[in-house]
Amino acid sequence: MINDRIREIFKQGEGILHLTPTWVPRPFNEPGKRLRLHPDDYFALGMHRGSITERWFGSVTRADNGPDTGKYEAMSFVWDQDQSEKILFMEFVQLLGQELVGEELQDRYGGWPTYAKFFDNNKPLFHHLHLTEHDAARIGRHGKPEAYYFPVQYNNHMGSFPYTFFGFDPSASKEEIVEALHNYTVRDTRITELSRAFRIQLGTGWYVPAGIIHAPGSVLTYEPQWNSDVNTIFENVTAGEVNDLRLLIGCTPEHEQNDMEAIFKQLNWQESTRPDFRSKYFRKPIPLQAKQPGLTEKWIVYANEWIAAKEMTIAPGTEILLTDNACYGAIVVQGYGQFGRFNCEAPGLLRFDTISEDEFFVSEKAAKQGITVRNQSRVEPMVILQNFANNNPDVPGEI
User: What pLDDT, on a 0 to 100 scale, did the predictor assign at position 229?
Assistant: First the structure.
């Protein structure tokens, strides 16, 4: 019965799925309150779970939030408007397979291998790295390369520390880093004294491969990434908040959890200490050549082997045919109108359990055929962010 309903929803949407908001709490930091979530709902899952600081898009991944994590926490749902109910997005991915994601992604990964999120912290995040595919496989997980983009529409303020630490200064030594890890439970190691910070520039971004240590600043960030939630946190005190030892050792095989040399080896030392780090990993948007009147497109995540993203803007009162060569997730960040057969609008204020009309997933066939998108405002642009996996041939391969 559910399989029949999934196919009917997919058919009715003409290859487009309407997704519902996926809110994710974290037990650290404090909310920047730029997610357009109602102020009363930032602790909707209870004070013991921490505040909601993230919203995930097109996710088939469960968050790693400790023993109290819900069965489907951080996983996306599709809205069945006719039945007024939600159906797990993963069920669509599993049933529809290549009808949804295309033959290449289905053959290589068995489904949709990536997702995107907004993360929204008022204070900087801890200095941490994400495991490579090799290291993650040792604990039965996947690696996590990711990218950042800082949308102007969601950043009415810049938080308390709008600077991001990337890597370590080339003058830092391996011995200094290992010593800091040994002192994780002894004293404030102030490990970012060995790093380097870059001021965040709205409307730009960065690519962050797995294995590179970083500490994101206090700006709401759009983050396309691989399907994973694995961290190794090298910093033991962040903005006055003490990080538990499990955050350092929790993604390490049990027999190596007391071996700081082994934990250090999760770090890609060469890339984390590149003198030309900014020139390799900073991402300015790359505009596409205009194809239709009123449509502006630019690549915002590109030049890597894992993920990609694009920002498109439609002028007021304009209708365009949006075509792409791969499936994607879409989030409307400004304006309102039509997205295929669906109404769409960027939200003003959302309650925790309400439905929005800003998030969609577009199948490969529908993307290639083209989506009719209409900006129904007479004065305001419509802006949509799209996140892709690594199978779109149009993504720029170089900076």
Answer: 86
Residue 331: helix, strand or coil by DSSP?
strand
Sketch out the chain's domains with CATH numbers: 2-283 (2.60.120.10)
% of the chain beyond a pLDDT of 70: 100
CA angle at residue 55 from 30 to 6, to 5 degrees?
155
220 within 8 A of 123, measured Cβ to Cβ: no
Reported as type and span, the H/E element at residue 92 is helix 89-96
**Identity of residue 65:** N
The predicted structure's pLDDT at residue 48 = 93
Give the Cα separation of 393 and 327 in Å (integer). Answer: 12
What kind and span of H or E run contains 181?
A: helix 174-182
CA 363/CA 93 separation, integer angstroms? 10
Closest CA to 115 of 385, 372, 333: 385
CB–CB of 153/207 below 8 Å? Answer: no
pTM above 0.90, yes or no: yes
Tokens of 67: 């023993």
- From edge to edge, which strands make up the β-sheet containing 336-339? 319-322, 371-375, 336-339, 342-345
C-alpha to C-alpha distance for 224 and 306, rounded to whole angstroms = 10
Angle 158-164-167 (CA atoms, 0-180°, nearest 5)? 175
Cα separation, 111 vs 134, in Å, equals 20
> For all residues of the chain together, what is the average pLDDT?
97
Instruction: Give me the mean pLDDT over the 158-167 stretch.
Output: 98
Element (H, E) at 147: strand 146-149
